[in-house]
Design goal:
Blueprint lengths: L15 E5 L2 E7 L4 E5 L3 H21 L16 E3 L6 H21 L3 H5 L3 E2 L6 E7 L9 E4 L5 E6 L6 E3 L2 E3 L4 E4 L4 E6 L4 E3 L2 E14 L22 E3 L11 H4 L2
Length: 255
């Protein structure tokens, strides 16, 4: 189980927590602009997953041999472009992208506020659902190796609860931290930062991921592979989260 307090190395300063455009934002690294937004309610996360599950069932029911969860990129093996899931873009992901862009602009500040609004999905594959699972009766996809995304800004929204899987998290080499998100939180970072998906040892970990271009953050990764150590992966950071019972974005309430 993960404690409600952030688990971090003794010599690391406490992260700054702020409210931006009505959202709780936890700044993990102000120089490299790595931060977590409390954005989605549990109900919305569950609804997105249910839409994906319904999509999968409909494809199977139709008798089609079309691949559903598949390899879209070099390292991941179970991806699903949201454009293929009926109504998901219009109902959810275009609004999530808009909210993230607004907050990215506020984080970078100055003229970057306007530049951030130019962020757009890199291709038709974006956003995409990414599934990690380790269960006896299903194909296994537990994590991904160290890599960088090569886009301007990456964001990933956690759709599963922490108690639905064991292990996991996103480890950043330059931060020497493994960031674990609570359901509804969105991790945002420059696409040039090296990171890896830590293997889950049991359960299901599902994310909504988007690679975006259009605003150069001018942040490069200065870490070196030879200075990295697997020991750092146990340096886990878990941000506190917002109670969404009275804080639901207006677009979520729209029918």
């Amino acid at each position: 189980a993960v404690a409600d307090d952030a688990i971090d190395s003794i010599d690391s300063p406490a992260p700054q927590v702020m409210t931006i455009l009505g959202k709780r934002v936890t700044m993990i690294d102000p120089v490299r602009k790595v931060f977590v937004i409390d954005l989605l309610s549990p109900e919305v996360c569950d609804q997105i997953r249910m839409m994906a599950d319904n999509h999968t069932r409909e494809i199977h029911k139709s008798g089609s041999n079309a691949e559903i969860w598949r390899t879209l990129y070099t390292y991941t093996k179970m991806d699903l472009p949201v454009v293929e899931v009926k109504n998901m873009v219009k109902k959810y992901t275009e609004n999530i992208l808009y909210d993230v862009k607004k907050i990215v602009g506020e984080i970078f500040g100055g003229p970057m506020r306007k530049e951030a609004m130019k962020l757009r999905p890199r291709s038709w594959k974006e956003p995409h659902l990414l599934l990690y699972q380790r269960l006896d009766d299903r194909p296994q996809h537990t994590g991904i190796e160290m890599h960088y995304d090569g886009c301007d800004i990456t964001w990933q929204a956690m759709l599963t609860r922490l108690d639905e899987y064991e292990g996991g998290g996103t480890y950043f080499r330059c931060l020497r931290k493994n960031i674990k998100l609570r359901q509804g939180q969105v991790l945002v970072h420059p696409g040039e930062l090296y990171h890896k998906g830590i293997d889950i040892t049991y359960g299901i970990r599902c994310l909504l991921v988007c690679f975006t271009d259009g605003m150069n953050p001018k942040i490069l990764d200065d870490s070196k592979a030879q200075e990295d150590s697997s020991e750092y992966e146990s340096n886990v950071f878990v941000a506190l989260t917002t109670d969404y019972s009275n804080n639901i974005p207006s677009w979520i309430l729209d029918p």
